[in-house]
Amino acid sequence: MVVNERASKIDAPAARVWELVSTAEGQRLAGRGFVGEMAFTGAGLGMVRRMRTQGHLGDGVVVERCDHFDDAAMEMTYRIVDTGGIVPFADYRGAAKVIPAGDGASVLLLRSTFIPVDMGEEEAKRLSEMNFALFFDNVKAVVAEAA
Description:
By secondary structure, this protein is of the alpha+beta class. Helices cover 29% and strands 44% of the residues. It has three helices and seven strands, in the order E-H-H-E-E-E-E-E-E-H. It has a seven-stranded antiparallel β-sheet with strand order 1-7-6-5-4-3-2. A hairpin with a 5-residue loop joins strand 6 (89-100) and strand 7 (106-116). Helix 1 packs across helix 2. The longest helix has 26 residues, at 121-146. The radius of gyration is 15 Å and the shape is globular. It starts with a strand and ends with a helix. InterPro entries: Polyketide_cyclase/dehydratase (IPR019587), START-like_dom_sf (IPR023393). This is SRPBCC family protein. It holds the Pfam family Polyketide_cyc2. It comes from Rhizorhabdus wittichii.
């Protein structure tokens, strides 16, 4: 099993970062560069998002479902329910948490666990790390644009 974890300080209040992680519009902004389109059914717990991938992932449609959503704690978990034939990970589970870090900053934590499909763990982890890097870069760019 591969575990990918990353946390980074974001120069924006926790509520703003949580908005980018937890809302449809925020997720679209945070997914730029590796997700071309996102469509949502529902919001919060039970939400399903369909993502058309692009870039290093290739072109396909991945479906994820939110299994835990706690707005007050600013944390959520989700899992891939359809890999679209493009994501080489079985039993993918992801988590996001935003932690306040003073008045104008926060810490964003992302975690994923999965079993690689027909590829080595190191290669699979590098792919997951690339996704995380793009996500963090996008979040930081969006909050900087608004500043």
